[in-house]
Amino acid sequence: MSVSKSDAIAIIGGGAFGLSTALELSRKGYTNITVFEKDEEIPSRWSAGNDLNKIMRAEYEEDFYTDLAVEATHAWQTPLYAPYFHRVGYLNVVSGAASQKAVGTLHRFQAAAEKHPEMKPFFHPISGPQDVRDVAGAWQFTGDMPGWKGYVSKYDGYVHSANALRGIYREARKNGVRFFLGAKVGAIEKIVYEGSGKSRKSIGVRTKAARFHAAKLLIVAVGAAAHKIVPEVGAEVSAKSWSVAHVRLTDDETAALRGIPVTYARDLGFFFEPDPKTNLLKICPMGGGYINTNPSTGISEAPQELMRFVPKDDEEQMRELLRQTLPYLADRPLVEKFICWFADTADSDFIVDYVPNTSSSVMILSGDSGHGFKMFPIVGRWVDNLLNAPDGKQSILRWRWRVPKQKAKGESFDHDVSWRIGTVREIRDVQGQEAVKANM
Ligand SMILES: Cc1cc2nc3c(=O)[nH]c(=O)nc-3n(C[C@H](O)[C@H](O)[C@H](O)COP(=O)(O)OP(=O)(O)OC[C@H]3O[C@@H](n4cnc5c(N)ncnc54)[C@H](O)[C@@H]3O)c2cc1C
User: Fold this and answer.
1) In 10 A of CB 184, how many CB atoms?
2) Full set of structural domains in the chain with CATH
3) Which of 38, 314, 339 for a ligand 1 pocket mutation test, highest count of atoms within 8 Å of Cβ?
4) 48 lines ligand 1 (CB under 6 A)
5) Checking DSSP bridges between strand 280-285 and strand 269-271, what pairing results, if any?
6) CB atoms < 10 A from the CB of 129, how many?
7) What would the pLDDT profile of 53-78 be if each residue is shown by its tens digit?
8) Distance from C-alpha of 411 to C-alpha of 356, rounded to nearest angstrom
9) Residue whose CA is at the smallest distance from ligand 1 atom 26
């Protein structure tokens, strides 16, 4: 199906993938683009990108994603994106207590950073705590960092993701993209189709308030909520989540930690330079994460409600990371805690393709697998490439629509991803452990 520059394009979801697409298509001359976003404002409380910061590291275990992340690093250095990119370096290590799995993953990341011609000059090995202070520049870390080994890449850093979403939202609006926000006008209930089987085709969307909007092309970018709009995605996508928390610092403490690298101990978790505006230091535990399996389908689906808590074990792990690095913070209250949901795939590959049996009228951007924010400036290019593919097909095979496999009872792909350490648990099993769930 060909889409002309004036045809109506509806993008469902104003998160990282949706906004990037809206901006890119508006730049490419498409003049009739509408974004539907369920929250009242952007960044949405449901967006996995609505956060102080995300790691911007270019080295991956595979050249394919490394090359994309290098391309994204260049894009983060252009005037529109540069205000959000903080190139403070990325300290990637394991502690002396790390599992073989964590050590193996670290070595593969290290090999990628060491061999890439552009990253190589920024790479420095770290063979112990003194190197963390002297080579990585984290001189403020007074903890004993037992057995810490790995590398620092000064090519990398972090991006202020909530501000980046705000900035690109503003830019897309300037370029003429229309936004419908909030429960009444922006929340989409479903895609409306005509025909069936192979001749099925979408004609638009229906909002939760039962209003119909016609569109020639629908682009579904709803993150962890993919199943709600495209149920056919089935077991190919699993809604998954991790804990996020913060430590509130004083002005002086924030100033003292200025410029620390993103610090990632693969067996414990990671934290970032404190945000000077809020004095919050963001910290996350590394773990297998949490799923929310629908007992009737066996598929993990994103919960509707926001979850403002972190499980006790995660909290203990974050405190241990602080104890090893910044011990004076280890017993501070953790604040602004939440569970953050993303769309996971078995192989961590994204899905950027048309949904089958829609006559190419519905495209899905999904499977960010918890590593998609770094690609924010270039996601829209992938959509434009697919729209212009001479044969109408996704040329990147690994991003094609995969036929959902039937999972045997009890089978799960959730433990297979190399860079995630730990066991995947049902969120309902840890929900009672601590604190409250906010229904917002
Ligand atoms: C804890 C955590 C840490 C992460 N850390 C990193 C990192 O360090 N580096 C990195 O590169 N990536 C990281 N990520 C991944 C990154 O945040 C995601 O890859 C990225 O946000 C995915 O973008 P998206 O647009 O697919 O989904 P989202 O950003 O989640 O956006 C989906 C949007 O769809 C909207 N929506 C949902 N349903 C509807 C509906 N029915 N109608 C209308 N709108 C709807 C939502 O409100 C939301 O705005 C992390 C993710 C998590 C959870």
Assistant:
1) 12
2) 1-53+160-236+348-405 (3.50.50.60)
3) 38
4) yes
5) antiparallel
6) 21
7) 999 999 999 999 999 999 999 999 99
8) 26
9) 223
